[in-house]
Design a protein that fits this description.
Largest sheet: 8 strands, antiparallel
CATH class of one domain: Mainly Beta
Number of helices: 1
Shape: elongated
Strand content: 35-45%
Helix content: under 10%
CATH architecture of one domain: Sandwich
Length: 323
């Protein structure tokens, strides 16, 4: 025999009347408002037919039709059904206590409003520790002596760290920083200062001009390159004597220059000639005037040797090959 036990149970009659049929799980209403006064999972008490049927609602088709989880055991019509609301449980047998959701409609439930909470306080900076329970609409943070509002930025809601300096424009020969430095690229230490890390780099060693004697470029710097391609472009040639292109490193102690590549064959005709040097380079590279295996010095120059004083017009460009 099933029993009914309730804790903190509230019985709320619903609008209209209902009819139930033995063996059917459908409850039919007349003048009812099932969709607004009931909900799926709610419990409903349907009197009549000699017994009160307590059923859980599984679906609501309309204001006048719903389905319960278990068929009715009695037939009756014109009955006023009631919704059961509880903060506890409804137990229809001793093995299955069924929780019931407390709905938001509490107009029929006696109670009182808690008046202990204070009125909302407008948040501001430099608030002392409260002596009553404040209600604030913003978060506060303790700064060690008082409460201040938690802040963001108008741009992205993030706190900006003002301790970092502005980004520094990177340049070669930068000294060791004494304050935090924010740069836009990688730096390499050269033994004394910091230089920018470079990709393959090209430049002009000697601009095009007519020459009759040995000519050396200015000192050039290989920051992090280990190889070079020197390009000799002869646009006017006497046909006598000839030109030889040498890549020379500079001794950091004496300042004297030393040869890095082999002595190439002299050039006596117009045309473009290239001289290649990097570690492991083959001496028979196709298309190369002269190939050499070696490492490029940090400070170097390109030296063009004239076999005699006849005039040649030429330029020398170069490509530094990175690591």
């Amino acid at each position: 025999m099933a029993t009914l036990r309730v804790d903190d149970l509230f019985v709320t009659p619903i609008t209209g009347t209902v009819a139930k049929t033995t063996g059917s799980a459908v409850l039919t209403g007349t003048g009812t408002q099932f969709t607004t006064q009931l909900y799926n999972g709610a419990w409903i008490v349907v009197p009549g037919g000699g017994a009160n049927d307590v059923r859980r609602i599984v679906s609501i088709a309309s204001d006048t039709s719903l389905t319960v989880a278990k068929v009715f055991g009695n037939t009756a019509s014109g009955q006023v059904a009631s919704r059961l609301d509880s903060a506890g449980i409804i137990q229809v047998d001793r093995y299955n206590p069924l929780p019931v959701r407390l709905i938001s409609d509490i107009t029929s439930v006696p109670g009182s409003v808690d008046t202990e909470l204070a009125a909302a306080v407008t948040a501001s900076d430099a608030l002392a520790n409260p002596t009553t329970a404040p209600v604030l609409s913003h978060g506060l943070m303790w700064d060690g002596s008082q409460w201040v509002r938690a802040r963001g930025t108008t741009a992205g809601g993030q706190i900006v760290d003002t301790e970092l300096p502005a980004a520094a424009a990177l340049a070669d020969g930068a000294a060791n920083p004494t304050v935090p430095m924010v740069g836009a690229g990688a730096l390499l230490w050269n033994g004394a200062t910091w230089d920018r890390y470079r990709n393959n780099f090209e430049g002009i060693a000697l601009a095009s001009a007519a020459r009759t004697a040995n000519t050396a470029s200015a000192d050039l710097i290989s920051y992090n390159s280990i190889g070079i391609i020197a390009v000799l472009n002869v646009t006017a040639a006497s046909g006598a004597g000839g030109l030889q292109v040498r890549v020379q490193g500079k001794d950091p102690v004496s300042g004297n220059y030393y040869n890095l590549n082999d002595n190439p064959t002299a050039v006596t005709a117009t045309g473009i000639y290239n001289y290649q040097m990097w570690p492991g380079n083959s001496s028979t590279n196709t298309g190369s005037t002269r190939s050499h295996s070696g490492v490029l010095a940090r400070t170097f120059r390109i030296f063009v040797i004239h076999a005699d004083s006849s005039s040649y017009t030429y330029s020398v460009g170069y490509v530094l090959c990175g690591v």
